[in-house]
Amino acid sequence: MTGAATAGPPTARTAHRTAPAVSFRGACKSYGEVRAVDGLELDLARGETVALLGRNGAGKSTAIALLLGLCPPDAGAVELFGASPERAVRDGRVGAMLQEGRAVPRVTVGELVTFVAGRYPAPMPVTRALGLAGISALADRRVDRLSGGQTQRVRFAVALAGNPDLLVLDEPTAALDVAARHSFWQSMRAYAHRGSTVLFSTHHLAEAEAHADRVLVVDRGRLVADGTPQELRRAAGGSHVRIDVHGRTAGQLSLLPGVRAVELDGNRALLRTDDSDATVTALAGLGAIRGLEVAPAPLDEAFLALTPPAATPAPRKERR
Ligand SMILES: Nc1ncnc2c1ncn2[C@@H]1O[C@H](COP(=O)(O)OP(=O)(O)OP(=O)(O)O)[C@@H](O)[C@H]1O
């Protein structure tokens, strides 16, 4: 054998070892007139933890359904690890936690996770899956008699059971209380640290910011932003500078360099600025930096700027 096979570009035989974990190639999916996913073009590298954000109805769940092979794209293609989603799922490379799914009656949590693990070629030990999901104490409880948050954690254990390379989580913390959320993210990070790829959708921007290396924003089935949380914040503009008003008017403050908008709240002013250095320097020149606070604009502002609500369609004009 020569060394050429490892030195050259990937061949069909080696491509599956180097291919991205997830690859959308112009994928489209419509329901009637609704374009739920509209030409999605995207790669997720192996080992990335990626948050998928978007308003209600933006196309997140449909993108996840395409990715898992639950429905075929109308056009374009989706691949996982260089193979079809069906193949990757069959090979046990994918674990998913979806929003729906009815509890199986009369089965205990331990029995369910053991059953699921048994269907995979190289599963995770059941005790570890239960431990990571924070439900070791529920192993003997019936799955159809659990609370919403407990059921959500059972779903997480089921997603982990096959020891997948790719974990797909559709709004994983939707039913969890604060403590359960915290332990969920700890487990997810522990799992991601092993080099697994994680894709999760969420409406909690703070969770995306805290737990994802990369944030994707979809709007009306299209990818409208892709970057680190910091990059998205910067792209949407700016920083928040807060000061004591000290007799100055909003009109005067709005003339300072970089300032896009000013909001007054009692004795405090919030300046939204594209150039916090220039704004603060100018404030210092005016001797107006009492109670100064400077912070990056929060991610939710970036999100709102990136996904404006759909315009209400204008009433149709009657033809005369
Ligand atoms: N099975 C279906 N039949 C008809 N329309 C559908 C179906 N599934 C989704 N849609 C529509 O496709 C669009 C995208 O829906 P999708 O569920 O993918 O959005 P989402 O971003 O996951 O929303 P949410 O945050 O509310 O869960 C929406 O307009 C939705 O009404």
List keywords for this structure.
320 residues, alpha/beta, 6-stranded mixed sheet, 13 strands, 33% helix, elongated, disordered N terminus, disordered C terminus, binds adenosine-5'-triphosphate
Q: How is the topology of this model organized?
A:
Elements: H1 4-7, H2 15-18, E1 22-31, E2 34-44, E3 49-53, H3 60-67, E4 75-80, H4 85-90, E5 94-97, H5 109-118, H6 126-132, H7 148-161, E6 166-170, H8 178-193, E7 197-201, H9 205-211, E8 214-219, E9 222-227, H10 229-236, E10 239-244, H11 250-254, E11 259-265, E12 268-273, H12 276-285, E13 293-296, H13 299-306
Helix pairs in contact: 5-7, 6-7, 10-13
The protein binds adenosine-5'-triphosphate.
What does this structure look like?
It is elongated and about 70 Å long. The longest helix is centred in the middle third of the chain and has 16 residues, at 178-193. 33% of the residues lie in helices and 25% in strands. It has a six-stranded mixed sheet, sandwiched between helices. It contains 13 helices and 13 strands. Helix 5 (109-118) runs parallel beside helix 7, helix 6 packs across helix 7 and helix 10 packs across helix 13. The protein is an alpha/beta fold and 320 residues long. Bound molecules: adenosine-5'-triphosphate (ATP). Adenosine-5'-triphosphate is lined by residues 31, 34, 36, 54, 56-62.
Question: What's this entry about, in short?
Answer:
With 320 residues, the protein is an alpha/beta fold. The chain has 13 helices and 13 strands.
